[in-house]
Amino acid sequence: MTHSPTPCLPAGLPIPVSEPDGLSEPYWAGLRAGRLLVQRCAHCGTWQFAPEWICHGCHAFDPAWVEVAPKGLIYSWERIWHPAHSALKDHGPYLAVLVELPHAGHVRMVGNLLGDPMQEVTIGADLQGVFEHHPDASPAYSLLQWRLADAADAANR
C-alpha cells in the first residue's frame, strides 16, 4: 500500500463526501483506512463501480463491499489542459486516467495519474494506487490517486 507524501489535491476544491443517502460511504471510509473497496454481489458475483443499491447483474439489493488490491491498468487517459474548477486554474495540465481493476471483474474508475503531466502514457500500463489522506480537513477525507507501477509493483501482481 502506498501513501502520497504530499497532497495532490489543490486547496479550494470541494471535499469529497458520501451522498446524503450514504450509498458511497463504505467506499470513502475504506479510502480513509487505506483500503480500496468495490461492490460485489453476494448472489451472482457481479463486480460493479460506481456504487449502486442494486446489483447490475441480477438486481439483488445491497451488493457487498469487498477489498481489492489498489492495482490497475490504464484503459484510457486524457491530458487535461482546461481547468474543470477555478481551484485548478494554476494546476494544469494534469492527467486523468480510466483505470481498469483486473482483480475486481475489470470494473473501471476514473482517477488522477501522478507524476510529470507531460509524461508518455501507454494504454495497458500497470498502475499502483496511492492513498492521499487529509485527516485535518473538516470532515477528514482520503483520495485514491494513481502512479505508474515500478518493477517491484509489477512483480507483486
Overview in brief:
The protein has 157 residues and is mainly β. It has helices at 25-32, 151-155, and strands at 2-3, 36-40, 47-48, 64-68, 71-80, 94-101, 107-113, 126-134, 141-148. The protein is built from 2 helices and 9 strands, in the order E-H-E-E-E-E-E-E-E-E-H.
What does this 3D model show about the protein?
- The protein has 157 residues and is mostly beta strands.
- It is 8% helix and 36% strand.
- It has two helices and nine strands; from the N terminus they run βαββββββββα.
- The strands form two sheets. Strands 1, 5, 6, 7, 8 and 9 form a six-stranded mixed β-sheet that branches. Strands 3-2-4 form a three-stranded antiparallel β-sheet.
- A hairpin with a 5-residue loop joins strand 6 (94-101) and strand 7.
- The chain is globular, with a radius of gyration of 16 Å.
- The model has no long low-confidence stretch (mean pLDDT 90).
Based on CA inertia axes, which overall geometry fits?
Answer: globular
What string, H for helix and E for strand, traces the elements in order? EHEEEEEEEEH
So how many helices?
2
Mean pLDDT: 90
Radius of gyration: 16 Å
Alpha-carbon distance between the two ends: 13 Å
Helix % is: under 10%
- Strand composition percent: 35-45%
Task: Identify low-pLDDT runs.
Answer: none
